[in-house]
Design a protein that fits this description.
This protein is α/β, with parallel strands linked by helices and 262 residues long. It contains eight helices and eleven strands. The two termini are 30 Å apart.
């Protein structure tokens, strides 16, 4: 029912309150900086596919080193951010900001580029981002755009636990638009059941995903570059996003107990 990538993610969450662990640890846990740290999974709660893939990537790095990982909040965009408290971080940054990391960090681009995209019912009267002012926009708690749509366009944000919940709210008329990563939404709109919700606004400003490693951690940086090279050669991100999108669509399908809003 669920994709291999997502099953790995869920298994990682079960391994200890937002920590991933290796079968045989060869050292202390890695401290990984993330912009959003997922809460521990609570037994009995609905399984939800995340919008963010950062936790999964961090878990794969830790598994490669046969170490566990503990996640801490890390704002890579802050001017005073320090790399002293983490072994590495996963961050989405404009290319210009990644270059400004300077001597404090080694920035390794994964090749993943994301942009905010909005989808709506095909009969919407919203034709531009500016027309989101005063309209209700649904987002996922772990998504990249919480706070940004209200600040930039004056929209009324409704934040949900996961993308499936946000997209379900769109289908049942609780919001005028849903904003998520364009890579996921473009994949979602290929499913015929999303034809009625295929109106969209053009993707916004791009951000590229990076591993940030403290200066002086050349061995780890080398390993990460090798992993990224292997992922690119195997089209890893395309497969991962395809699997995750299919799981999100299935979660919406299972939970939609009322018809699409007309």
């Amino acid at each position: 029912m669920f994709s291999k990538g997502f099953r790995i993610f869920v298994a990682a969450l079960f391994l200890g309150c937002a920590q991933t662990g290796a079968a045989a640890s060869s050292g202390p846990d890695l401290t990984v900086g993330l912009r959003y740290v997922p809460p521990p999974f609570v037994g009995g709660a609905k399984v939800r596919t995340p919008e963010s893939i950062e936790t999964l990537l961090a878990g794969e790095v830790a598994a490669r080193q046969q170490r566990g990982a503990k996640f801490v909040e890390f704002d890579a965009t802050a001017s005073s951010v320090s790399m002293d408290s983490v072994d590495f971080a996963v961050a989405d940054l404009p290319k210009s900001q990644a270059r400004r990391q300077g001597g404090r960090a080694i920035a390794i681009a994964t090749g993943q580029v994301t942009r905010p995209m909005a989808i709506m019912r095909t009969d919407t009267d919203i034709k531009s981002w500016r027309q989101l002012k005063g309209r209700t926009v649904c987002l996922a708690q772990d998504g990249r755009y919480v706070g940004r749509i209200a600040e930039r366009y004056g929209a009324i944000e409704q934040v949900y636990r996961a993308p499936a919940d946000s997209l379900l709210a769109l289908r049942t008329g609780e919001c005028d638009a849903a904003v998520h990563d364009d890579t996921m939404l473009k994949a979602l709109l290929r499913f015929p059941e999303w034809k009625k919700f295929s109106a969209s606004l053009p993707p916004g400003e791009a951000a590229e995903q990076y591993f940030l490693v403290p200066a002086g951690s050349e061995d780890l940086a080398k390993q990460l570059k090798e992993m990224v090279g292997r992922w690119k050669s195997q089209a890893y991100f395309n497969k991962l996003i395809s699997d995750m999108t299919r799981d999100i669509a299935f979660e919406v399908y299972l939970d939609q107990t009322v018809p699409d809003c007309h």
